[in-house]
Design a protein that fits this description.
By secondary structure, this protein is mainly α. The protein has 22 helices and three strands. About 70% of the residues lie in helices and about 5% in strands. Helix 1 runs antiparallel to helix 5.
């Protein structure tokens, strides 16, 4: 959290080096928080609270994204407003740092380091009855003794990694955890979030309109996360995740088809070419549509008061102002009546992602590893998430140019479909299972693949009844 505040301070400086330093510190802080947040929540709360609590973790992130977008919009017209946008992030990060001082240490972290009395004291603060404390302490103790007795479990440093790979249950859990984080990113979420305004501009909306329409995406992200909060313990992780991916595939497919329809519309949309802008005009009239105009680098379109679309070079600002009354460079996309399909596709995609594929990879990863491997495994899966994030965010525009705008979204939909099939087969249900009880899910192949009910889950249900 201190590095977040430092980022805010240095980012208000004018030098590029200070900005890079600020972003680097920001990345370090977010990396720590994204791993330790779900880990801490899972280790502190009882099994029936883990799911809603980790969804709340994701909900706070979506609210932060929405709030950041609003602040960016408010400061956009202000000269040097970006300094305020970055500087103001020091306020919540400082508040978080101060509040963290009062948080108790992890129950399991204390126990694994021999501080059993402190572990029990913390647990007594977090559970409603002494019976719950006793039951959980016994489970932690039994798991700890089992690890101490088995030389193939536990260890530190490289030895933990070796034991994780050699242990069948942990290896299966690790592969699943990596898959969850990879498919979350490779299904295109950060292409949609980072480039939502760009995607809407591709659909033909103005830059100003695209900024405000992207708020619809952020609003849907916040609103539909509440469905995950409600459904994670009622429907269960697996059903919620599969339903989430199905809606995501529908949204991505609609986005792809919307661009197919808009490209066809643009090819039949007439434009006026001008000899005074020779880079964007030909004598034989070979270019007959808005689509053809924008195929040429640096050519733009603008509409005059009569609704006639003109094709002009972006540097011909006098012509753009003369014909269209605008001092801007013109639009990079043709305005079509089908633009609303792209807005609908984006919103539908987020409606699917927010309740399931957004929070559940973090929820499930915090549940499926034994105590001795959990922190190391979460480091690996969190690294995988940010690696996928980097790949997607840096390749979206390249992919759009190579495969076409419809093709990029169809590829994301295909990746999501593969992920949905994988999780249908290999994702076990972790609802209602204690952290010490998840081993059985991955030790038993039939339970792991859902061919046989989990004994511990059945016991939990009987107790609840």
């Amino acid at each position: 959290e201190e590095s977040l505040c430092m980022k805010a301070v240095v980012s208000t400086q004018s030098t590029g080096k200070m900005l890079v330093a600020g972003r680097a510190l920001d990345g370090i802080a977010i990396g720590f928080v994204s791993m330790t947040g779900p880990l801490y929540i899972a280790e502190q709360l009882p099994s029936d609270w883990r799911g809603p609590a980790t969804v709340c973790y994701q909900l706070m992130i979506t609210i932060g994204i929405f709030g950041g977008g609003v602040i960016a919009g408010l400061f956009e017209p202000v000269r040097g407003g970006w300094r305020w946008m970055l500087g103001l992030s020091c306020i919540p990060s400082t508040a978080m740092f101060l509040l963290f001082i009062f948080m108790p240490r992890s129950v399991r972290w204390l126990y694994l380091r021999g501080e059993t009395k402190a572990s029990q004291d913390v647990l007594a603060q977090l559970r409603q009855t002494p019976a719950e404390v006793t039951e959980e302490v016994e489970a932690i103790k039994a798991d700890y003794e089992r690890v101490q007795a088995d030389k193939e479990l536990g260890g530190s440093g490289l030895r933990v990694l070796v034991n994780m790979v050699q242990n069948t249950a942990v290896r299966r859990a690790l592969v699943l955890g990596i898959a969850l984080q990879l498919f979350q990113q490779l299904s295109g979420i950060n292409s949609v979030m980072y480039y939502s305004s760009t995607i809407l501009e591709m659909a033909g909306t103005s830059t100003k309109m695209a900024i405000w329409l992207s708020c619809i995406v952020s609003t849907a992200n916040v609103a539909f996360t509440f469905i995950g909060l409600y459904g994670v313990e009622r429907a269960g992780r697996k059903i919620l995740l599969l339903g989430s991916m199905l809606v995501m595939i529908m949204g991505l497919s609609l986005l792809g088809f919307s661009f197919v329809i808009m490209d066809l519309s643009k090819k039949s949309m007439p434009v006026t070419f001008h000899p005074d802008s020779p880079e964007c005009s030909v004598a034989d009239g070979a270019w007959a549509s808005c689509y053809n105009c924008l195929e040429v680098p640096d050519c733009r379109v603008c509409d005059d008061a009569q609704g006639i679309t003109h094709c002009l070079h972006k540097n011909d600002t006098n012509l753009i102002e003369a014909y269209c009354g605008a001092e801007e460079e013109g639009q990079k996309e043709c305005k079509t009546s089908e633009s609303w399909l792209a807005v609908l596709g984006l919103t539908l995609y987020i409606m699917g992602f927010a309740p399931g594929m957004g929070p559940l990879p973090w929820t499930i990863n915090s549940e499926i590893f034994p105590n001795w491997a959990r922190d190391t495994a979460l480091c690996i899966t969190t690294f995988t998430n940010w690696l996928g994030n980097s790949i997607i965010s840096q390749t979206f525009l390249t992919l759009s140019n190579a495969a076409g705008r419809p093709g990029a979204f169809f590829i994301y939909a295909a990746v999501a479909l593969v992920g949905m099939a994988y999780f249908f087969v290999f994702l076990p249900e972790t609802k209602g299972i204690t952290l010490e009880g998840t081993d059985e899910l991955f030790r038993n192949r039939k339970v792991f693949m859902g061919l046989q009910p989990n004994r511990r889950q059945g016991e939990k249900k009987e107790l609840a009844d």
